[in-house]
Amino acid sequence: xxxxxxxxxxxxxxxxxxxxxxxxxxxxxxxxxxxxxxxxxxxxxxxxxxxxxxxxxxxxxxxxxxxxxxxxxxxxxxxxxxxxxxxxxxxxxxxxxxxxxxxxxxxxxxxxxxxxxxxxxxxxxxxxxxxxxxxxxxxxxxxxxxxxxxxxxxxxxxxxxxxxxxxxxxxxxxxxxxxxxxxxxxxxxxxxxxxxxxxxxxxxxxxxxxxxxxxxxxxxxxxxxxxxxxxxxxxxxxxxxxxxxxxxxxxxxxxxxxxxxxxxxxxxxxxxxxxxxxxxxxxxxxxxxxxxxxxxxxxxxxxxxxxxxxxxxxxxxxxxxxxxxxxxxxxxxxxxxxxxxxxxxxxxxxxxxxxxxxxxxxxxxxxx
Length: 368
Known about the structure:
Number of helices: 14
Number of strands: 0
Protein name: GPC5 protein
Largest sheet: none
InterPro entries: Glypican, Glypican_CS
Keywords: Cell membrane, Glycoprotein, GPI-anchor, Heparan sulfate, Lipoprotein, Membrane, Proteoglycan, Signal
Function: Cell surface proteoglycan.
Membrane topology: Lipid-anchor; GPI-anchor
């Protein structure tokens, strides 16, 4: 009653043993592919972590530098500006990770929050009545009167160019892991599991436990079993090319590090522009939002924030170098894996599975 290991000679196998062998080849095939995938997956996961750490380090540097700007140059509003600054960099971090947001919405929301502070602390430092309604009016007016000139739009343009490639790379790395995980658990067809049993276990039914499959026979079986996986070859090569393009984009003119490290300067220029145009802005705001209550005398000392010492330059240089090195290492490794899916059958038939150094091997029917 054997279905797979039928042979003219006497056999020590039963139908139940054949079923056990089919379960074994499924398990072994998954384990073999997992072992092949392990290094590739380990490298991608390792680089996802490394890129993320480098991104976060650069973002922390840029955030510290921006906070420092407020604490040194714009002390009257530093305390209240802390939250919008934090939100801006959180939004940028989420954008890189693939969240449904845009750089433009993050930057413009920041400037919407910044304008009421610039207006009430720098342009008209005597304002005390900053009610919710008045603050909201200032936020909405910012979009119409454009107090920060072209600096806010320039910042959107610069960041969008540099962060786009980082976001795409982050998503592409996650996609790579998804593809690898899917190939590990691709279901074996009935024909494939029978062919694997015939190749690996049918010799056992005749007591030939040490004989191993012939190389050509193994390749034919594996190529048949892995036809759907090896079809990924063209797409995988294209995927590697895309990774190469993205890493080059990040390293090219739209440099992430330069864009992030220059954010504080763009914000500073924007605030200076608003201050220079203070009288015109005040006239327009008074018409739209009305005149708030004023207080004579000095500002409250509660707005004065102690300056934090930030050792930024070294951190930035290290994060910059780290990210560049990680890019190079990663793309060089991925280029070597370009033929990963094309050569998967050859790699599974390598090593202990087949008989390489002997002229005697199993061809699926007999020892040859």
